[in-house]
User: What shape does this take?
Amino acid sequence: MKPPVTPLLLLASFFLAASPAFAGDSAVFVSQTVPTSLTTGEVRTVSVTMRNNGTTTWTRNGELGYKLGSQNPQDNYRWTHNRIYLEDGESVGPGHSKTFTFNITAPSTPGTYNFQWRMVQEYVAWFGDFSPNVTIQVAAPVPHNAQFISQSVPATLAAGQSASVSVTMKNIGTNVWTAAAGYRLGSQNPQDNLTWGIGRVDLAPQESIRPNEQKTFTFNITAPSTPGTYNFQWRMLQEDHLWFGDSSPNVAYPLPVTLCPGVSVVPDGMSDLGPALQTCINDTPSGGTLELPPGTYGMGTQVRINKPFTLRTRGLASSTANCEEPGINCAVLKALPSFSAKVGGFLAAEATQYVTFDHLILDGNRAARLGTTAASQCPTGADNNRWGYNAKMGDCTFCRFTHSVSKNALCGTALEFRGNDGTITNSVFRSNGQNSVPGMWADGLTIHFSDRATVTHNTFIDNSDVALILGGGQNAVVTHNRISQPSQVAFAGLMLDNFNTPEWGNFTGAVVSDNTIDCSAARNCHFGIEIGPHPWYLPPKNIQGGDVHGNTVSSARQGINVDGAGTTQAPLLLYGNTVTNEAPGSASFNCGVHSTSRLNINTADSVVDRNGDTTPMTTFEWHLCP
Assistant: This one.
């Protein structure tokens, strides 16, 4: 309280306060915590922080010292006090800050009121910054309202740990809170969550919390067993009626996990865990396994494996279900927006053998990376789509990608694979790239070459270049893969190619059978199955061999197209495939409108053994027209 003064002293104070402050006195506003709405008579705790940027030390000095004083208008008692004192014996030296924390009581009349403060040396001068004015709306009490008072929660928690907590709320409405009327404390962030094993905390059956009374809810929680960062926040509600009043301050609990001896991380998808993963991989002997606890591992740097190694989600070694099947909780490796390097993905196995990626989700985080340097490089040609890969297994023999998911690649491909005796099974390749933006398209799975490869029982959904493309694979087995394009266009569902490389494109002994390609009613595939490279480029050699039979194509613009496939020594064997609902007569392609059919074989540059199949066919040339 400002001390009473005589009229003479009051006059003197007026003139002194209006005079310039002492040259050594100065203050800079730092911060404040102030509500913007209150109910009449409500009591709240506020704070205002000022920094002493003068040359004098602030002290209390009885009634004559340094204080925080009310403004707008000056010396008002609107919030009960017009002066906030330093503590006895306290001093605030030059360069130091002082946080004034005090209670205010809202006026008894509803309206709009100003909250503003400034430093003063009593009976000498006001000085320094004003705190920013806060306009506080004061309203009459409403039936439902609650003020957060306090909470008692642990400073840290471990995964699976139980603890007792409490949250105190004050009833500042006009209704009485009772269990019978459905008043409870409910979980928030997100609303109604069961993160902590409980989503509601009840009042006792006969308990009544009247207006201006407080209730402390004490209850037990159990931290999630899966590492990550989890929010602890609560609010009052009347069940089946409404939520009301303050939320408790959010407490974010990071639950760390040990990746390997000496390395603990919080897999919450926010920070770059690439270096931690690399450390654990480097510290694991050749032929070893690193099992990742479920969680989201942010990837801002590439992780590389160059020795026999298995990387999988912990606890799923014996599971035959993939990461999208119910009840399977896989570790997620997710590209951060900061990941920007022309290295062919955030996960790589190179120049090695016997590497397995099992039960992992690789997320390119495409939506969050649009507008980044990496995105700007994707459409610039050459091999710059390597900026947008999710992963690669390059020059990797006997390597495996199993029960996993690779999705949301920025551009290029969800997985690039090169190396003999590869296995890609029971995995999902989903929503990679964007066909409608030139240069931003992406394959689902790109196999440059892999003799004796096994590519079976995979699912490809809404990839934007070619869902499944192979550039060579003697004695490879490509069977029982499911390809669909419900929401975006792809150049082809399945393609046998040579990537314009003369030494590739050998499919002698390979079997491609029992695969399904569904392009949807919108005909979202230019080609259901494309065999041969000529729609893209005219290399000096055709692809060689291959047995393509028993596949099903529906609703492609061009059902099956053969252009640049087979040689006299190694003809393409093509028979017994089913094509339905192809575009009637013609359709639009990148080169413009082109005639279409169920089956087209350019007999001028392809050598095909149809094995007695008499399905009608056309013989269009389809050069440089994807």
Remarks:
- The first strand starts at residue 27 and ends at 33.
- The first helix runs from residue 7 to 18.
- The radius of gyration is 35 Å.
